[in-house]
Design goal:
262 residues; alpha/beta; 3-stranded antiparallel β-sheet; 39% strand; disordered N terminus
């Protein structure tokens, strides 16, 4: 077990500990955060469920093949991105949510609770959360659980520039092990004139679950972006993947610096 001597305590769950199913048709970023006193969080534990390769979809396969020729397959790419996301998620959470991070394995839960939250425009996200969160070895119980799912990489582009602006784009339907799901449409640039812009978009859903009170205290559907001018590169993929914690924590009670876009 590895401990980082900080005040807020975090636990890392093994991938099999939580089964996650997200279904989101929200066409614009959406966030909900309950009001929680940061002083109350000082002695709490937040468990992070690692992202698995099955949680990731890649729509722009041609870009992936061009940028990641050294990887054997699309599945190998999903494994790489899952590992990259988990590593950077831990680092960002440790820096930005006043945590002390502790690694621990979770015992196989005996039962799950299915949790669904409705989002605007008749969309929803659903996850299955273990009813009994007891950690092996020292019996530590998590106070909060963070789950991130339904991650979708896709290329976005816009025609025009100048004084234009972004509006939500249409939702995208993808196939996952849980069936077809609709994910939020990325921003589309309208208005203005001349020029164009391109970016890599990584859409995802998240939820932070209050174990004791059995409710979601923070959840949402959003995306990260990485812009490019001429051609997408590996750095764009990694930049988008590395920003997930920023969006999850931003302006939430779990963020160290209120309203700061770190």
């Amino acid at each position: 077990m590895i401990g980082y001597v900080r005040t807020f305590r975090f636990l890392l769950l093994i991938p099999a500990a939580i089964a996650v199913v997200f279904a989101s048709g929200c066409t614009a970023p959406y966030y909900h955060h309950d009001a929680i006193d940061k002083e109350v969080l000082q002695e709490k534990y937040l468990a992070i469920k690692p992202v698995a390769s099955d949680d990731i979809a890649i729509v722009n396969v041609e870009d992936f093949d061009d940028d990641w020729s050294e990887l054997e397959s699309l599945e190998a790419g999903k494994v790489y991105f899952a590992n990259y996301i988990n590593e950077h998620l831990r680092v960002k959470v440790e820096k930005s949510a006043v945590p002390r991070l502790i690694d621990a394995e979770i015992r196989q839960p005996r039962a799950y609770r299915s949790v669904t939250k409705l989002l605007p425009e008749v969309a929803e996200l659903t996850l299955n959360i273990p009813e009994d969160i007891v950690f092996a070895d020292d019996g530590i119980t998590a106070d909060y659980l963070l789950v991130i799912g339904n991650l979708v990489f896709r290329r976005m582009n816009s025609a025009g520039g100048g004084s234009g602006y972004q509006v939500p784009g249409p939702p995208t339907t993808i196939s996952t092990p849980q069936g077809n799901v609709s994910v939020p449409g990325g921003p589309v640039f309208v208005g203005g004139g001349g020029g164009s812009s391109q970016w890599l978009d990584l859409a995802f859903d998240f939820m932070i679950w209050d174990v004791a009170n059995k409710k979601a205290v923070s959840y949402g559907s959003t995306s990260t972006v990485s812009n490019f001018v001429f051609a997408m590169t590996q750095s764009n993929w990694e930049a988008a993947a590395g920003k997930i914690a920023n969006k999850v924590l931003w302006n939430s009670p779990f963020q160290q610096r209120s309203r700061a876009r770190y």
